[in-house]
């Protein structure tokens, strides 16, 4: 069974959609000009009985408004969240993070025994910090994100109007109060004047890696049952490579109706056939297609092994086993004392001479976020 390579056109939205959106936006409440400015698609819930915790359903980028620490921190954070939601119509969320500075950590360099240096923190403390995060943004450079950041920095919520000596748990509240008294701050920033934009802490770090696949390659792999993009691990082993010609160049004019080169189609078919054959044997195999080649990978691993002092990695036994199982065999050349390498095959399809571990590619953060709407 072959793989059908689809052609993709840029999605064009009709002008009527924009007109409907503008009309819908004009019918919402107008007493506050900031209402629905940042989140026009939904009303902002503000139920005192709910705990609005950050989840991966929020956008990849959010504004870190402020944080609280110590007894009563969660209550004060909750009150601020309710005020931001009810009075300012902003989606605000709570995120708790625990800090432990009581354990030893590995430092740079090695000791006299050749082992990594063991270091301790200057302060032996443990504590939880409650952060208040606001917003859902696809991009760090989004205009909406920058506007919201500016707005939050100049806000003066009633829940943060308490003087430090009255029991506020806001981090650095005392320092900000002292700055205001001494007039050290030339601008008119409020109690959240040190706000900044951060990643959504509930999204895995790999979503933000620079080697995430672009949306075009992601579409090439859509509909593939055993796509490498669905691999749950951080690493896999590339066991077969099928190269084709470069047929797409997004930097130049792209013709969606242009025929795909036979070599690229053949590469995709071979990769798909090999994955199907491996899956029939109960092997965890995946396929992946881009503009240049199609590859087959086996296995999903969260680690490749332990890094040694000399920088080399002592491969995890399962990773090494996969590499050995599909690597070429060393055979003696007929009528010669020399040896050569014979690639292994399955169903007439050849594996790579030397399989290699690779990072599992991940979907782009933008497409992952937009797919929720």
* Widest beta sheet: strand line-up: 2-5-1-6
Total domains, how many? 2
Major sheet: 4 strands, antiparallel
**Which percent range fits the helix content?**
10-25%
What is the strand tally? 16
The dominant shape is elongated
Distance between the termini: 34 Å
Mean pLDDT: 76
Number of helices: 8
- Using only CA atoms, what is the Rg? 28 Å
- Helix and strand element order: HEHEEEEHHEHEHEEEEHEEEEEH
- As a percent range, the share of strand residues is 15-25%
- Sheet/helix structural class: alpha+beta
Low-confidence stretches: 1-41, 246-260
Question: How does the SSE layout of this entry go?
Answer:
Layout: H1 15-26, E1 61-69, H2 73-86, E2 92-100, E3 105-110, E4 116-119, E5 126-137, H3 143-153, H4 173-182, E6 196-199, H5 215-220, E7 235-243, H6 262-280, E8 285-289, E9 293-301, E10 305-307, E11 313-315, H7 317-326, E12 329-332, E13 339-342, E14 345-346, E15 349-350, E16 356-359, H8 365-370
Antiparallel strand pairs: 1-5, 1-6, 2-5, 3-4, 7-9, 7-16, 8-9, 10-11, 12-13, 14-15
Features:
alpha+beta, 2 domains, 4-stranded antiparallel beta sheet, 16 strands, elongated
Structure write-up:
By secondary structure, the chain is an alpha+beta fold. The protein folds into two domains: 37-203, no CATH class; 210-370, no CATH class. The protein is 24% helix and 24% strand. It has eight helices and 16 strands. The protein has helices at 15-26, 73-86, 143-153, 173-182, 215-220, 262-280, 317-326, 365-370, and strands spanning 61-69, 92-100, 105-110, 116-119, 126-137, 196-199, 235-243, 285-289, 293-301, 305-307, 313-315, 329-332, 339-342, 345-346, 349-350, 356-359. The strands form six sheets. Strands 2-5-1-6 form a four-stranded antiparallel β-sheet, with helices on one face. Strands 8-9-7-16 form a four-stranded antiparallel β-sheet, with helices on one face. A two-stranded antiparallel ribbon has the order 3-4.
